[in-house]
Amino acid sequence: MSKFFTYEERLELQKYLKDSLSFKEISRRLEKNPTTISREVRKYSSEIATGYPGFPFNACKSRINCRNKKVCDKQCTRKSAIYCKLCTSCNSNCLEFIEEVCTARLNKIISPLVQNGQSVNQIYINHQDELMCSEKTIYNYIDACLFDVRNIDLPRRIKFRERYKKPEFKVDKGCRIGRNYEAFCTFIEKNPDTAVVQMDSVIGIKGGKCLSTIHFVDCSLMLAFLRDANTSKSVIDVFNQLDKLLAKDTFSRFFPVILTDNGSEFSNPKAIEYRESPPFWRTNVFYCDAGSPYQKGAIEVNHELIRRVLPKGTSFNELTQEDINLMMNHINSYKRKKLNNRSPYETFSFYHGEEVLHKRGCEPVATSDIMLKPTLLKK
């Protein structure tokens, strides 16, 4: 069977489509494969604004239940004794006209951004004036498979439950005396206006490079530092670098309290709390209870964004700090509901200014350029 259509065959195909014949029946009559018929129709078909037989085209969202009469004050080209929705000038003259959203137009906006790793909420925040529909409607259209993307393409729509893994306790419990979660809660009660910073690690492959993450809870901004090994010394080096970069008084102002977990890399809290020159004190370190990551839930949630770019099992050995800064710029420019639809970068800048961010190499990323996929670091 030939895969090409002659002019005469295309005329016959057009006639059969007008007769509402199935692709299978058309393929039998034209002696071609049904797939060939389907491909030809998809490739060369076009949308024409036509109404039902005997009715004009009407793009109003309320056209089915509309009962308006005498909408047009001008000389009407097609007066209707029943309802104005039967008039060809209805859409252009009616003040209550609301255009029905075209799924093809929505698909062109939404699908590429979802494929870049953006959530539906993020897309809706930045394009709601173009979408002209609710966030729930977008989810309904995705559920109905009306877009190129599916539920499995959404960052948090489909998840697989992780296997239970017995927790490992590596830290000498002596370092936690006076620094446990109960002590942290007591400290916050006495100092309610103190900003809390959460700290954790993101592991690549075992024995390879890893990340230290520092999360400012009040504005959801996160910093990440590439370390050659997951050791206590490498974490201390990160804080010594920050202390030197920001100056002593600025460091203590931004890091008054640090809450972290029981990883062995955090087993020397005094080296983080104190510097070698006066003023010696620089911060307070506290630990979550063993097996209770929810006590520092803000940083755990933000790690999900890192894992979109660096999935579990990915090696960090070929990455540089510039790569990590690029990833964090995209994450910190990602708008959040809890921040009143602002990004962490915008929120931090509003409260603290951009000077500190620029010192750390943080830069904003345009919303249309945000990508939270592994390809971000492979360009």
Spans where pLDDT lies below 50 across 5 or more residues: none
Find the CATH topology of the largest domain.
Answer: Nucleotidyltransferase, domain 5
Helix content: 25-40%
- What would you call the structural class? alpha/beta
User: How many domains would you count in the coordinates?
Assistant: 3
Q: How many β-strand stretches?
A: 5
CATH architecture of the largest domain: 2-Layer Sandwich
Strand order of the largest sheet: 3-2-1-4-5
Task: Note the overall shape.
Answer: elongated
CATH class of the largest domain: Alpha Beta
What radius of gyration results from the CA coordinates? 30 Å
Largest sheet: 5 strands, mixed
- The topology string of helices and strands comes to HHHHHHHHEEEHHEHEHHHH
How far the N terminus sits from the C terminus, by CA atoms, comes to 44 Å
CATH superfamily of the largest domain: Ribonuclease H-like superfamily/Ribonuclease H
Q: What is the tally of helical segments? A: 15
Mean pLDDT level = 86
Strand content: 5-15%
Pfam families: HTH_38
Domain Integrase catalytic: 188-352
Keywords: DNA recombination
InterPro entries: Integrase_cat-core, IS30-like_HTH, RNaseH-like_sf, RNaseH_sf, Transposase-Integrase, Transposase_IS30-like
Explain what the structure shows.
This is IS30 family transposase. 38% of the residues lie in helices and 8% in strands. It is an alpha/beta fold and 379 residues long. It has three domains: 7-44; 103-153, no CATH class; 174-377, Nucleotidyltransferase, domain 5, CATH 3.30.420. Helix 2 (23-30) packs across helix 3 and helix 5 runs antiparallel to helix 6.
